[in-house]
Write a structure and sequence with these properties.
Layout lengths: L4 H16 L3 H10 L6 H18 L5 H15 L2 H7 L1 H9 L3 H14 L7 H7 L3 H11 L6 H17 L3 H18 L2 H17 L2
């Protein structure tokens, strides 16, 4: 039945697949159709999904404020796995909406408290100019499989980081290899980010 936990979980998996491939309208329709109140963890995951859709589409559904409350609740109750899953969202939201340094520092604080899902902390380290730490984090995670989409994000980040380290030729090679990864996985948002990085590299190299 549509109101069951199994149906909600299946729809949530479909929503994630749509989101990582850039099918945002489809992802939003799935988030909207999944009933709340079936499972508190699923409810929290749905708020994170809504936040991701808000960031991708430049909208504000109020998910950021609701997620802040859920993160605070998880921290106070000692729900470490929930905090690890949700905690990156608030910092990314603040970075996107102009509070860049504070948002980056919030991401680093979350990662220090819940040292998992390190892919997202790479954005904070790049933003703060801490390239050596970003490289160390990237290398430490190289053999850790958080999922194909996380690997696609890291490929984009490594392209940018290698340019910032002063090797545009190697960065360009990495960027083109990343495009192949994104194309095979149909990760269209990452495809756009890597194309942007490659256009910057082309400009830098004249």
């Amino acid at each position: 039945p549509a109101s069951s936990q199994a149906a909600g979980s299946a729809a949530y998996g479909r929503e994630y697949a749509a989101w990582v491939q850039g099918r945002f309208d489809e992802a939003q329709a799935l988030v909207d159709c999944i009933p709340r109140g079936i499972n508190p963890r699923l409810d929290a995951s749905l708020e994170l999904s809504q936040l991701q859709l808000d960031m991708a589409q430049g909208s504000d559904s109020g998910a950021a404020a609701r997620l802040d409350a859920l993160i605070d609740h998880a921290r106070r109750r000692g729900f470490t796995s929930s905090f690890a899953q949700l905690g990156w969202g608030a910092g990314c939201w603040r970075m996107l909406h102009g509070d860049v340094t504070a948002g980056a520092e919030e991401l680093l604080a979350w990662h220090a408290e819940a040292p998992a899902w390190g892919t997202f902390v790479l954005f904070a380290l790049l933003t703060l100019g801490r390239f050596g730490e970003a490289r160390a984090e990237l290398e430490a995670e190289r053999d850790t499989f958080w999922g194909a989409e996380a690997g696609a994000i890291r490929a984009t980040v490594e392209t940018v980081l290698t340019r910032l380290e002063g090797d545009p030729a190697a960065a360009e090679q990495l960027g083109h290899a990343a495009l192949v990864t994104h194309h095979r996985g149909r990760f269209r948002p990452q495809l756009v980010h890597t194309l942007e990085a490659l256009s910057g590299l082309a400009a830098v190299q004249g």
